[in-house]
Amino acid sequence: MPSDFLEFAEPEADRAEPGHKTGWKLAVIDDDEAVHEGTRFALRHFAINGYGLELIGAHSAADGLELLRANPDTAVVLLDVVMETEDAGLKLAKAIREELNNELIRIILRTGQPGQAPERQVVVDYDINDYKAKTELTADKLFTTLTAAFRSYDHLKRLDDTRIGLEMIVGASASLFDDRSLKTLAQGVLIQISALLEIETDGILIMRETNGANPLVLAGLGKFEADGENGIDRSGLFATAAAAGRPVRSDGLVCLFVKTGSGAEILVALATEDDLTETQASLVSVFSAKLAIAFDNARLYDELRLANEELEERVARRTQELAGANERLEAQGALLKRVNAFKNEILGTIAHDLKNPIAVILGRSEMMATLTESLEEPLRERFAKQVGHIRASAERMTRIVDMSIADALADALDISVERRPVDLAAIVAATAELSRMLAERKEQRLAVFADGPLDVEGDPDRLAEAIDNLVSNALKYTPLGGEIRIEAARLDGQARVTVSDSGPGLNAQDTARLFGRFQRLSAQPTAGESSTGLGLSIVAKIVELHQGEIVVEEKGPLGGASFSILIPLLETR
After folding, report:
1. Rounded Cα distance, 136 and 571, in Å
2. What single string gives the DSSP state of each residue in 376-396?
3. Where are the domains of the chain?
4. Which residues touch 459 (CB under 8 Å, ≥6 apart)?
5. Residue from 8, 30, 14 nearest 132 by CA
6. For position 525, what pLDDT does the model report?
């Protein structure tokens, strides 16, 4: 048709003007060279929104795929269906969407054989935007079809730019607004403002600190991205924009001034020849309020990050100091353990090498006092006086030993044993005999029943100490004229030593705290004897070290308390 080759001129307002960037990119993919030439001729004066066309082309689907891969910013593709194969164009359309992931490009199918690809089936099965037979694409039809396609692409591109700008701002927030994210935020702001105003332009974002320092360029688009401030008067732009209080034009730039709550000043300058409309100015003003908050948040997060780094450094130093202090404490603790071990060794000497002999001295002094009564005067008086001195000194020594044991055991109760085969029945008999004179002083009956030998593995001094503590408690809490019974016998593979008395016995409160350190029983000593509250705790520790156990009866066979020590017998060979 003749109209296919008519030239037409666009209105003056729609012509591309010098100085604009490259126009709309149109790809023609067709195996007929005549189609390429006809399209270039028909569209040589095409312009929309002030931009002309940049035509690129390919003669096969394979070449077309590579062409579009190299030119992802192509706006529209005029695509033939039948090329190297009958459905080459359809396969390319599918590859554009799925392989290249290009959702923005507008695809217009042009075919000379409509029957090969029915329109309804193509629209349903393939993501294309228009379907035309070559015979119906006159110059006018081609103009209107491309105008609609380019406008559709432009709208989608602006939406995509908006998405990119928002993603950059969100990404800046996610990285806690450090120095680099502050610049990322600025770059996102420029893209976002361009998208909001629906203009494609060069732009720059500048920040000035509250202390009046030189303004700092944070981000740039277009020529400002490559050349920085590009010779603009930063201080002059700040002064002009701040005085206007709204978007203002200065030196060929539309300037937007924002002051944050912290006092920092931000200037956004866009290289556009058109003034902003009222709608655009209102939109930018609303966005500016959010922009000030975003930059203040960035600054606050930056200060928080610095404070956190300083705190971490202080914590690290303090941790190092504490580690050194802990090392010193551990060294002192090791020294204290050695000192404590030495103290316990001395304690053992006092408890076993002094206390028991002192008890013998007291017993013998009682015997000497009895013998003194048979002497004549003045020897009787002289001997009685000396025996009294001996007895008083022994009693004083006993009190000193008791106080020393209490003071030493106030910090730790660390008892060790040296094991060897011993006869527990013999230990019981010897220990009971040492206490007999004390029982006689209180007119108490002390009965001992020891079926020996009772061979056990243990420390004879420690076992004697445990038995002596039980016997001493029985003597202490049994009234004058009372009875104490000590029994040693075999019981189910164990040696059993039982100390029973006719004293007041134990109550529930006594039983609950019986073996605690420094615990005194509810009953009171019957002759004013002293008590450290450690005797039963020492007994429990010694029995535990001998893998034995203690059985307690609140009311034993004599009516008072009864304590039994069970120690495993040695196996007979």
Report:
1. 118
2. PTTHHHHHHHHHHHHHHHHHH
3. 24-162, 175-304, 356-411, 420-519+532-568
4. 417, 418, 419, 420, 422, 546
5. 30
6. 66
DSSP 352: I
Structure tokens at 98: 């799925």
**Which residues, including other chains, have CB under 8 Å from residue 291's CB and lie 6 or more apart?**
189, 258, 266
Look at the chain and count its residues: 573
- What is the residue-averaged pLDDT of the chain? 77
Considering the segment(s) 24-162 as one domain, its CATH architecture is: 3-Layer(aba) Sandwich (3.40)
Q: What pLDDT does 77 receive? A: 95
Residues 6+ apart with CB under 8 A from 303: none
Least reliable range by pLDDT among 198-202, 264-268, 528-532: 528-532
The identity of residue 284, as a single letter, is V
Residue type for 423, please? D
Q: Does pLDDT of 206 surpass 80?
A: no
For residue 38 the two structure tokens come to 């006809």
Task: Report whether 564 contacts 543 (CB < 8 A).
Answer: no
Tokens of 568: 């495993």
Q: Which two tokens stand for residue 292?
A: 């000030």
Separation CA 512–CA 446 (nearest Å): 28
The CA distance from 169 to 183, in Å, is 10
Q: How confident is the model at residue 530 (pLDDT cuts 50, 70, 90)?
A: low
Crossing angle for the helix pair 179-197 and 278-348, to the nearest 10 degrees: 160
Topology at the third CATH level for domain 175-304: Beta-Lactamase (3.30.450)
Separation in Å, CA 439 to CA 179, 340, 399, 446, 472: 91, 36, 19, 7, 9
Q: Please give the CATH topology (third level) of the domain spanning 420-519+532-568.
A: Heat Shock Protein 90 (3.30.565)
Predicted confidence (pLDDT) per residue in 75-86, tens digit: 999 999 888 988
Cβ-contact 558, 505 below 8 angstroms: no
pLDDT value for 179 = 43
Residue 17: the pLDDT is 35
Beta bridge pairs of residue 491:
494
Q: What is the 3-state secondary structure (H, E, C) of 130-163?
A: EEEEHHHCCHHHHHHHHHHHHHHHHHHHHHHHHH
Which range is least confidently modeled, 121-130, 237-246, 475-484, 520-529? Answer: 520-529
H helix intervals, 410-507: 424-434, 436-441, 460-477
Instruction: Give the N- to C-terminal CA distance of the chain in Å, as an integer.
Output: 129
One-letter identity of residue 289? A
SS3 of residue 231 by DSSP: coil
Confidence of residue 113 (pLDDT cuts 50, 70, 90): low
Q: Phi-psi region for residue 533, left (φ > 0), alpha (ψ -120 to 50) or beta? A: left
